[in-house]
Design goal:
The complex is a heterodimer of chains A (about 700) and B (about 300).
Chain A lengths: L3 H13 L36 E6 H6 L5 H4 L6 E7 L2 E6 L10 E5 L2 E2 L1 E2 L4 E2 L11 E8 L3 H4 L6 E7 L7 E9 L3 E12 L2 E12 L4 E2 L14 E13 L4 E14 L14 E17 L2 E23 L5 H9 L1 H8 L9 H17 L6 E7 L2 E17 L2 E16 H4 L1 E19 L2 E12 L4 E12 L4 E12 L3 H5 L1 E10 L8 E8 L7 E14 L4 E15 L15 E15 L4 E14 L11 E10 L4 E10 L9 E10 L1 E3 L2 E12 L3 E7 L2 E6 L4 E10 L1
Parallel strand pairs in A: 4-9
Antiparallel strand pairs in A: 1-8, 2-3, 4-5, 6-7, 8-9, 10-11, 10-38, 11-12, 12-14, 13-37, 14-15, 15-16, 16-17, 17-18, 17-19, 18-25, 19-20, 20-21, 21-22, 22-23, 23-24, 24-27, 25-26, 27-28, 28-29, 29-30, 30-31, 31-32, 32-33, 33-35, 34-35, 35-38, 36-37
Helix pairs in contact in A: 5-6, 5-7
Chain B lengths: L7 H6 L6 H7 L16 E4 L5 H13 L4 E2 L11 E5 L1 H9 L6 E6 L1 H11 L6 E5 L4 H12 L5 E5 L7 H11 L3 E5 L6 H7 L5 E3 L12 H10 L3 E3 L3 H6 L3 E4 L2 H18 L12 E4 L1 H6 L6 H4 L9
Parallel strand pairs in B: 1-2, 1-3, 3-4, 4-5, 6-7, 6-8, 8-9
Antiparallel strand pairs in B: 10-11
Classes of the chains: A mainly beta (about 700), B alpha/beta (about 300).
């Protein structure tokens, strides 16, 4: 700007007042020479330039709509199918598909992936983040490996917590509600020298659903669905120098999750004990206003303990039967069904003979039930280091690139027969280019190579054309892969039952006859996504709209449900997801705000497993009003249509009311949320022949909180 | 800007040494000016340094006030002169002297002006000012132009700027902007105040060293940006650092207003109230605007009030 030199003059004069001799009236902020804080490397792309559709859920929205967990927050994302099979078991897929194995989504918490390496899943109910610590959740609806790394196939959920510099002082929250809901949260933010830190501790518990389908006893719907989770989080930021900032994060989770029995043999509940410990270090080095390096290294350790007592007829533990199973499982199935197996090889027949002899030798004892302990325990550890470089060439060109190395290690006697590791290398680059004011081009690529499967490359190209200052049209083509997980490629699945009474072997331990062994020849699942999108920004009305037509082709899908009885994963699955999606956000000065979304989806697949989670129509609406007096009300409506597969519709209406009081420097906010389900019971399709029904005896639930911050 | 090791107050008082005798006589004076209509007083431009920026200001002032004297060209009638104090240091020095006045302060912010007046005590000469920082009313009108509608705006006032609240409320009413005033108390923290203000898309920054200082300006800009909020104010340096926009005044614009103020005083004999800059132009950080999804148009970019050309 041409006025600059003279304006410096005004500042300079005031600067003279700061000379040390004039001790009385000190700094005049007008004179302060502020170095650029919002450097080009720090500024994010405007939503009109983003190569895809994004949903941003702010901490304010979480408050307004009475949302108390991350999976529930995802209901505010158009197209996100959130199914809760049990209290601790959420199945979440963007645009649905396979409910049994939802693992095509990447979830990051401050850059640390919450996507578990062994089982390719996300423990939604025990994420190492407290809802009160969340600043925003950015969901990129579409593949985005180039920006977010491995497993960013269908969508990316990027959770960003509150910066330690943005919060100060103490905050406390207590919540009570239906189904014995009890929560306590405490946070402290302060400084130690040049370090700003934020600590929080949280306890949450509730009894979950009144009734959950138990596969042990058809017709029984036990009330055994409670969760207790404790969390501790540390996040600190230290300015080592003006150019170097180091962020340290440490999280602990301890969660106890009740589970109903999975089959008729389990005599105790296979409740889960989950422990997680994450440590992450991020170093940001600012080379200049236009160039920045970022190194993030983290370790994430997770232990799952799931043990139970089961009572099974003794013959199921005979080693001879185990050997026969490994050779020809159909033979064993036929024996159990009481038939005469045939059609196998000569070796199969020999093993069959030995098995039959072993059973006869036991006599009546073979059919006698024996009880023992076994488990589904596993632990996994991920170590990851990534170097990212951002360079802003000009107003029109910005490049982000990087390299990463990840080491996953999973240990499980049951699932892996030991420990299996996997090392993944990755490289990525993303170019944001604005050749004209009216157009921006985004091009990026992601390459990864791992031990278990091989290599893959995922490119993305997008063109955003700004029709005018308010309207933008975009065209996006992107590819993304999901590499098979450790269990899919290296499973060595067997159950060692211990402390057996009466014992089958002299040691008191024996292997269950059924087992499974992965062949290890799976390829990556692939997705090709094409979209034509529109984004409209009308600040004069406070309105932002994002709409798209999408066509996603998923191939090489591993659709099969993997069980001990049937473990034959292939890459034969395919699905074509097409439809339209729209999202609107309205923020009016009168205090009204609206967040709305609608998705129309068409799912064509060659495997019915890929249609187990499928709503043709789904919609969400959040309307909130803030009053000057401190009162606030938020109404949220969620709707997902039923599917011919047997999935029932989902409808829920929540009303949240709060009032903020200011007492001296403290803020006190009581909140009340009333939640009503359209149907007391909902049905989800769990497998071709299995549905899960869960629900409540009362369709209405309450939660009341008090929040105090000082 | 050389830093002197001598007692600086002495070096700045050197232009008044000749009036020392008259000063003794004036000790008993209460400092109230006897108004004399059409009193063609002498005009003195008081400066405290010889830097480049000061020289530019002085050169422009000399153009407008050809009969003004600068620095050491003093006469015993100085004490009756109308003094234009350029910058806080000059103002402080002038206030420490026993002169009749009046004194017009320019290129000093409102909070510094008020604190200098407070420490000068009751014996100070009558004074007024053209503040250095942007007029809150202009800033609020800029908010309207940038957001295209009157969005909720939060302004943080510290102890030194609390006096601005009434004029802020008036300006908010005129622009129909829902204004939230947050008071910053001792050992409060800006982060805490900002975390209460997340519903305001705009934060109006008024320079107050208690609230905004070199320690926390960075935090303020980063925190507000992360919340998707825009900061309006208070200087071009701040806009370049990451604030969204501000109105600001160039030397000629301040001096044009000063000229009007002086002729107003000379014709009516009454010293007007301290005032914010009347003439201004706008500076916008286009990169921040784009990143915050704001649509900036020419009306906002050219938002200005120019003095009539001479």
């Amino acid at each position: 700007m041409n006025g600059t030199p003279r304006l410096l003059a005004v500042g300079a004069l005031a600067l003279l007042a700061n000379s040390p001799s004039l001790a009385r009236t000190n700094d005049d902020p007008l004179s302060d020479d502020v170095s650029v804080v919002l450097t080009p490397t720090r500024l994010k792309q405007s939503l009109a330039d983003v190569p895809g559709s994004v949903t941003v859920i702010t901490a304010d929205m979480l408050d307004k709509y009475g949302i108390r967990s991350v999976p529930e927050a995802l209901r505010l994302v158009p197209g996100m199918e959130v199914t809760q099979l049990t209290n601790s078991d959420y199945r979440i897929n963007y645009h649905g598909t396979n409910i049994y194995s939802p693992r095509r989504l990447n979830v990051l918490i401050d850059g640390v992936s919450a996507y578990r390496s062994a089982f390719a899943r996300v423990d939604w109910a025990a994420l190492p983040v407290s809802i009160d610590d969340i600043q925003r959740i950015e969901v990129t609806r579409g593949p985005n490996s180039a920006s977010y790394g491995p497993n960013s196939m269908e969508a990316v959920v990027n959770i960003i917590t509150k910066d330690p510099q943005a919060v100060d002082g103490a905050a406390v929250r207590a919540t009570a509600g239906s189904r014995d809901l009890g929560e306590g949260y405490a946070r402290y933010a302060g400084s130690i020298g040049a370090t700003r830190l934020r600590l929080s501790a949280e306890h949450t518990e509730n009894k979950g659903f009144d009734r959950v389908t138990s596969f042990g006893n058809s017709g029984a719907f036990p009330d055994h669905d409670g969760i207790r989770t404790d969390r501790f989080n540390w996040r600190s930021t230290t300015e080592l120098t003006a150019q170097d900032q180091v962020d340290l994060q440490f999280s602990l989770v301890n969660s106890k999750q009740q589970q109903v029995v999975a089959d008729q043999y389990q005599v105790t509940y296979p409740d889960v004990g989950l422990r997680e410990r994450d440590l992450s270090l991020t170093w940001r080095h600012t080379v200049s206003a236009n160039q920045e390096f970022r190194v993030q290294a983290y370790q994430s350790e997770h232990k799952n303990r799931e043990g139970w007592t089961e009572c099974i007829p003794a013959f199921a533990f005979l080693p001879e039967l185990g050997a026969l199973w490994r050779a020809n499982p159909d033979y064993v199935r036929t024996i159990i069904a009481g038939g005469q197996p045939s059609g196998g090889s000569a070796q199969d027949n020999a093993l069959l003979l030995q098995a039959l002899i072993a059973i006869r030798l036991r006599g009546a004892a073979a059919l006698q039930t024996t009880c023992g302990n076994t488990n589904n325990d596993y632990s996994e550890r991920r170590r990851d280091i990534e170097l990212q470089h951002t360079y802003v060439f000009s107003n029109a060109l910005r490049v982000v690139s990087g390299l990463g190395l990840r080491r996953d290690q999973a240990a499980s006697a049951t699932y892996l027969g030991g420990t299996v590791g996997n090392t993944t290398w990755r490289a990525f680059a993303n170019v944001e280019y604005r050749p004209f004011e009216t157009m921006s081009v985004n091009a990026g690529g992601f390459y990864q190579k791992d031990d278990l499967t091989g290599s893959s490359f995922s490119p993305r190209v997008a063109l955003n054309k700004h029709l005018d200052a308010n309207n933008t049209v975009r065209f996006v083509v992107s590819r993304a892969d999901r590499m098979p997980d450790i269990i899919e490629q290296r499973a060595n699945w067997s159950y060692l039952t211990t402390n057996m009474t009466p014992p089958v072997t002299s040691s008191g331990s024996a292997y269950f006859a059924q087992s499974a062994l992965a062949r290890g020849n799976l390829d990556a699942e692939k997705m090709l996504s094409r979209e034509i999108g529109y984004s409209g920004n009308f600040p004069q009305y406070g309105l932002m709209v994002d709409a798209k037509l999408f066509d996603d082709h998923l191939t090489n899908l591993i659709s099969e449900r993997l069980t001990l009885d049937s473990f034959s994963p292939t890459n034969h699955g395919e699905a074509r997801l097409r439809g339209a999606e729209i999202q609107a956000d309205l923020d009016l000065t009168t205090g009204w705000s609206v967040h709305a979304g609608y998705t129309r989806l068409n799912n064509r697949s060659n495997d019915p497993m890929e249609q187990t989670q499928y709503s043709k129509n789904s919609a969400l609406l959040g309307v909130a009003r803030s009053f000057d007096s401190g009162w606030r009300a938020g109404l949220s409506l969620y709707w997902a249509g039923a599917a011919p597969s047997g999935q029932s519709r989902y409808g829920r209406q929540d009303l949240t009311v709060s009032k903020t009081f200011r007492i001296a420097r403290a803020t006190l906010t009581p909140v009340l949320t009333v939640s009503h389900l359209s149907d007391r019971l909902t049905t989800s399709v769990y497998d071709i022949d299995r549905t899960v029904v869960n629900g409540y005896s009362d369709a209405t639930r309450y939660a009341a909180s008090i929040r105090v911050s000082y | 800007m050389s830093s002197s090791t001598k007692d600086p107050s002495r070096s700045r008082r050197w232009w008044l040494t000749r009036a020392a005798g008259a000063a003794l006589w004036m000790v008993a004076q209460s400092g109230v000016v006897q108004a004399a209509p059409r009193d063609r007083r002498e005009l003195v431009i008081a400066v405290s340094d010889d830097g480049e920026s000061t020289r530019k200001v002085v050169a422009d002032l000399r153009r407008r006030f050809p009969r003004a004297q600068v620095g050491d060209a003093m006469s015993p009638a100085t004490r009756k002169a109308l003094v234009i104090a350029v910058g806080p240091a000059a103002l402080r020095a002038v206030m420490a002297e026993n002169i009749e006045g009046p004194v017009i302060s320019v290129f000093t912010s409102s909070q510094v002006y008020h604190s200098i007046l407070e420490s000068a005590g009751a014996r100070r000469p009558p004074s007024t000012a053209v503040y250095a920082e942007p007029a809150p009313a202009a800033q609020l009108r800029l908010v309207n132009l940038l957001f295209k509608r009157p969005v909720r705006t939060t302004v943080v006032l510290g102890g030194r700027t609390a006096f601005l609240e009434p004029s802020l409320q008036r300006a908010a009413a005129a622009t129909k902007i829902p204004l939230t005033v947050e008071k910053y108390e001792l050992d409060d923290s800006v982060s805490r105040i900002l975390s209460r203000s997340v519903e305001s898309p705009a934060i109006l920054a008024i320079p107050d060293s208690l609230v905004y200082n070199s320690d926390n300006l960075r935090t303020v800009l980063l925190t507000t940006y992360r919340n998707g909020q825009a900061v309006i104010g208070f200087s071009a340096a701040l806009v370049r650092a990451g604030a969204l926009a501000t109105t600001y005044s160039e030397v000629e614009e301040i001096n044009a207003q000063l000229e009007e103020l002086v002729s107003d005083y000379e014709s009516t004999g009454r010293l007007p109230e301290p005032q914010f800059p009347k003439y201004f132009r706008t500076l916008i950080n286009e990169d921040v605007a784009r990143s915050l999804n704001l649509v900036v148009d020419e009306t906002a970019r050219h938002f200005a009030n120019s003095p009539d050309k001479r």
